[in-house]
Design goal:
Rossmann fold, globular, 3-stranded mixed beta sheet, 13 helices, alpha/beta, NAD(P)-bd_dom_sf, 7-stranded parallel beta sheet
Length: 339
């Protein structure tokens, strides 16, 4: 690690005077990125559409937040608000991303990303990290089952559009825009590519992946799909962002995948960890053979120094967190027999 990012030699005092801005700081991934930066001694500026909203209160309670965290109002579609947020920042970690299938999502994602990169470059930011998605990587029906999914893979845009996976379309185009704009402006850029992200929440509201696990646990989602998906712990994703930022040589994509499982394997893991819950047991019968897990490579992320959390540990801690925050009832073995 270069000296500008590490502890000074005189008595171990933190040399971190760097100010790093995190867009979408209050979200599931953004909150953990903020926490990781604070733990490493950075000064952090988090953007939110409404910094005063109580849903961002968890950020102000983080260790080091009182001394080194400020929240400011910014919107990715408002260049001037971004330019103000990035003033004085050494780095920008662009995590903010709407998650929907709105037809307007693609142009909004592209315009927002262009604004972020240009506001960062205009503000003298020295380094940027962009959060993409494995939705931009794995959605290709023509990929051979023997192909190892890695940073060279891209989703098939037409296939995503035809199957109404507009979120994947948006992430693909946003990533392309970020890469092209950063190259044009001479802004060093690394891209973190997380998959389905699980683990404990810092924010109060349920995020998509936690909600899905809760619905499987409680049996409210009656069946699971005959599908394969990739999973990673949110804390690993946060560390990947900071490691990619801290390494001056880090460029291009870094795939964050810890495990690839059939949904049946995920369900079996939940049932093993929490046998007292009425876990969904039925697979949707689509008449097709069981989908097979594919091979993947997370070598580039490991070369950054990232170690991946076992999925079982990540799931367990996600569920315990949901119990603690009141999103899941705490069911004992005895209660299970009455369900």
């Amino acid at each position: 690690m270069s000296s500008s990012y590490s502890k000074a030699s005189n008595g171990g005092e933190q040399q971190q005077e760097q100010l790093v801005c995190v867009t979408g700081a209050g979200g599931f991934i953004g909150s953990w990125v903020v926490k990781e930066l604070l733990l490493r001694g950075y000064r952090v500026r988090g953007t939110a559409r409404d910094p005063e909203d109580s849903k961002n209160a968890h950020l102000l309670a983080l260790e080091g937040a009182r001394e080194r965290l400020t929240l400011c109002r910014a919107d990715v579609l408002d260049y001037d608000s971004l330019r103000a947020a990035f003033t004085g920042c050494h780095g920008v970690l662009h995590v903010a991303s709407p998650m929907s299938n709105d037809p307007e999502l693609v142009p909004v994602a592209v315009e927002g990303t262009r604004n972020v990169i240009n506001a960062a470059a205009d503000g003298g930011v020295r380094r940027a990290v962009f959060t993409s998605s494995y939705g931009a990587v794995h959605m290709d029906p023509n990929r051979s089952p023997d192909t190892v999914l890695d940073e060279t893979c891209w989703s098939d845009y037409d296939f995503c559009e035809q199957t109404n996976n507009l979120y994947c379309c948006a992430k693909m185009m946003a990533e392309v825009t970020a890469t092209e704009e950063a190259a044009r402006r001479g802004l060093p850029l690394a891209v973190v590519v997380p998959c389905i992200t699980t683990g404990p929440m810092l924010q109060q509201a349920l995020n998509f992946s936690s909600n899905l696990a809760a619905r499987y646990l409680m049996g409210t989602k009656r069946s699971y799909t005959n599908a394969v998906a990739a999973y990673v712990d949110v804390r690993d994703v946060a560390r990947a962002h900071v490691l990619a930022y801290e390494r001056p040589e880090a460029r291009g994509r870094y795939l964050c995948i810890a495990a690839v499982l059939h949904r049946a394997q995920l369900i079996a893991m939940l049932r093993e960890l929490f046998p007292q819950y009425p876990v969904t047991a039925k697979c949707e019968d689509d008449g097709k053979p069981m989908a097979k897990p594919y091979k993947f490579s997370n070598q580039r992320a490991r070369e950054l120094g990232l170690e991946f959390t076992p999925l079982k540990k990540s799931l367990y801690e996600a569920v315990v967190c949901m119990q603690q925050k009141g999103h899941l009832p705490v069911i004992t073995q005895q209660q299970r027999s009455y369900l």
